[in-house]
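Lecture notes, continued. The same structure-token format from the folding unit now serves as the input rather than the output. Read the line below as a description of shape only.
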């Protein structure tokens, strides 16, 4: 194998750094001293190189060197066309006893981040250690760094949780064709991307809570001796508790391979200070512009003071950011195939308002995308900004609308504009779509007017990643609103340059990085089978309490699959199909003189007991589960449809057939 000169020098440097790290010279001196001592005691013959190599092998020194040194292997069928090397394999979950090995690409640099434990999580001070096998609340730590995402294994909640994990983060260049070059100190110093740490608590009923969201500047390792440093990170709470410490994590950072020379501490701190000053200046100028723009908007009409025009919003850390910064162009790769499937995925993330201690108004909290995805639930604004980002990725002209809903008050949803001028509303919580046709208030009294189809009452503003528009029409009622964004008499726009100065990717260091969506790790068939077996057990136990026997019809259970598949397809596409085949199959499976009853239901979770308790609240389902009669046969089918981030659409159908007796 022939290597180009630059690759050969890189390879030599990596091997040299690895040997230095192992303190190979010290080990060789020890072996040499022992070997010479043994030779003097036995025979006075000269020590050869072969004897010395044999002594190193006997001590296991050579094995240790080769065991820890890994290289990526190139494909043997190289067609001659030079292609950029693929990133080394990353791993998100680690088992403490069986760590997965990963190949290190010798042409790349890595940041090894170790979490060495937690302490001072005072909220769990009174919690005792869980007994073996006992179900308890857990902590899980999630990481995001430059398009790489990782997750720790869950550990029991405690005042000093046993969070001990290692994460290998690849540091690569951004330029086209630069991915194969090892980053140098200057390039790493200019990388302002933080490591985003998100700590999630999962309780015994699988409910998740966001504990902390922290942005770690890793560049202190560039000025540390041997490119290795260890320090404590104080995690703060979220929302109304964003100024209160939640706990402390001990974190170690190390560069692989280490740099020949580390940077001066002053250089790193000066770079960080300059970035903060630049960001503060951009944010100050945008705030000055936003205040002037708002004054002009109020001068148009005094009633504009009461319109829902949302320019800034607080994130989970209590930081005020322009709403446009919450929307980015997000491409899902192969994980989502269409805009409607994207809407279905977003609707499967649970809706939950930010928790408030005590009564009063709704807590204002827009989450960063990473925190929203890790938690798996959020408010309507989180859903709307995620759906808008995905629709922009699919090439649609999408905007987030802020206004009010008929029954729930303030609300956020998504709007798309077609090339023909058509306006479609997307409800991010349900994936429902509504075609908007405005009412013409100047039309003659007897002229036909379109009927309102959407549940939205008013709209104050619309925005996306580079546009912000406030509604300056005489009425902010959705039914009367004309979404002609090019007409300044209907919509007052902010300067796109001003919006981009603080919201474009890389414009400021305070802008949270955009995480990629994660492919699902759940096996849908296995999850479906497991849930269905649990439901069969619960139904049998329930009927046993009523002194009823339970006889299952496996064939009838299997036939229910096509109906559940059709229900999910209809939710995804809006088109109903396959119902005729299901009805025909049921008619064939139910003999003459027998009655068939079925009850489908949909869930966003996989907790069998919770689902069964919900089902029994329906009189239709209870009638099937508690069916009495002659020749009663029961059936149940569960289908788990898995989407990115392990979001699940769970469909179940309970059915029975029995002989009708008059």
């Amino acid at each position: 194998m022939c290597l180009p000169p630059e690759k050969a020098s890189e390879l030599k440097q990596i091997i040299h750094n690895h040997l230095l790290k192992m303190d190979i010279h010290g080990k060789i001196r020890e072996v040499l001293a022992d070997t010479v001592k043994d030779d003097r005691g036995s025979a006075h013959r000269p020590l050869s190189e072969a004897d010395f190599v044999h002594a190193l092998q006997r001590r296991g020194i050579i094995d240790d060197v080769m065991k820890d040194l890994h290289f990526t292997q190139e494909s043997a069928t190289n067609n001659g066309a030079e292609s950029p090397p693929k990133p080394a394999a990353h791993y998100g979950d680690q088992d403490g006893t069986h760590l997965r090995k990963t190949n290190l690409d010798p042409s790349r640099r890595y940041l090894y981040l170790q979490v060495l434990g937690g302490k001072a999580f005072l909220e769990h001070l009174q919690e005792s250690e869980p007994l073996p096998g006992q179900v308890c609340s857990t902590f899980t730590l999630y990481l995001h760094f430059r398009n790489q995402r990782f997750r720790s294994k869950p550990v029991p909640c405690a005042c000093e949780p046993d969070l001990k994990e290692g994460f290998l983060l690849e540091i690569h260049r951004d330029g086209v064709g630069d991915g194969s070059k090892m980053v140098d100190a200057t390039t790493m110093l200019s990388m302002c991307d933080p490591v985003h740490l998100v700590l999630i608590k999962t309780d015994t009923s699988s409910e998740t809570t966001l504990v902390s969201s922290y942005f770690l500047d890793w560049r202190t390792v560039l000025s540390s001796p041997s490119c290795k440093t260890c320090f404590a990170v104080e995690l703060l709470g979220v929302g109304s508790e964003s100024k209160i410490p939640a706990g402390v994590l001990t974190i170690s950072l190390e560069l692989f391979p280490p740099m020949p020379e580390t940077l001066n501490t002053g250089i790193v701190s000066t770079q960080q200070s300059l970035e903060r000053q630049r960001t503060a200046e951009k944010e100050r100028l945008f705030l000055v512009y936003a205040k002037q723009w708002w004054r002009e908007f109020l001068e148009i009409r005094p009633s504009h003071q009461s319109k829902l025009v949302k320019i800034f919003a607080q994130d989970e850390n209590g930081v005020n950011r322009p709403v446009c910064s919450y929307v980015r162009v997000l491409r899902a790769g192969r994980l989502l195939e269409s805009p409607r499937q994207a809407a279905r995925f977003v609707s499967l993330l649970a809706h939950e308002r930010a928790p408030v201690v005590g009564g009063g108004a709704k807590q204002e909290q827009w989450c960063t995308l990473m925190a929203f995805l890790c938690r798996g639930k959020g408010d309507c604004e989180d859903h709307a900004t995620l759906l808008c980002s995905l629709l922009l990725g699919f090439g649609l002209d999408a905007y987030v609308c802020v206004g009010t809903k008929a029954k729930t008050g303030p609300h956020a949803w998504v709007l798309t504009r077609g090339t023909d001028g058509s306006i479609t509303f997307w409800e991010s919580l349900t994936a429902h779509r509504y075609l908007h046709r405005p009412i013409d208030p100047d039309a003659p009294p007897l002229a036909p007017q379109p009927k309102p189809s959407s549940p939205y009452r008013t709209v104050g503003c619309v925005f996306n990643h580079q546009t912000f528009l406030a509604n300056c029409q005489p009425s902010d009622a959705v039914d009367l609103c004309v979404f002609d964004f090019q007409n300044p008499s209907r919509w007052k726009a902010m300067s796109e340059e001003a919006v981009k100065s603080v919201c474009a990717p890389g414009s400021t260091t305070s802008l949270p990085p955009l995480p990629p969506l994660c492919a699902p790790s759940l096996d849908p068939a296995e999850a479906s089978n497991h849930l269905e077996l649990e439901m069969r057990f619960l139904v049998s136990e329930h009927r046993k309490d009523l002194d009823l026997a339970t006889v299952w019809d496996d064939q009838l259970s299997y036939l229910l699959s096509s109906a559940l598949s059709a229900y999910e397809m209809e939710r995804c596409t809006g088109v109903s199909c396959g119902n005729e085949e299901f009805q025909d199959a049921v008619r064939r499976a139910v003999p003459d003189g027998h009655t068939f009853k079925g009850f489908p239901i949909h869930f966003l979770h996989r907790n069998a007991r919770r689902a069964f308790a919900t089902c029994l609240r329906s009189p239709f389902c209870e009638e099937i589960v508690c069916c009495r009669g002659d020749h009663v046969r029961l059936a149940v089918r569960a289908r788990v449809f898995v989407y990115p981030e392990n979001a699940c659409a769970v469909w179940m159908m309970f059915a029975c057939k029995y002989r009708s007796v008059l």
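Point for the exam: The first helix runs from residue 5 to 21.
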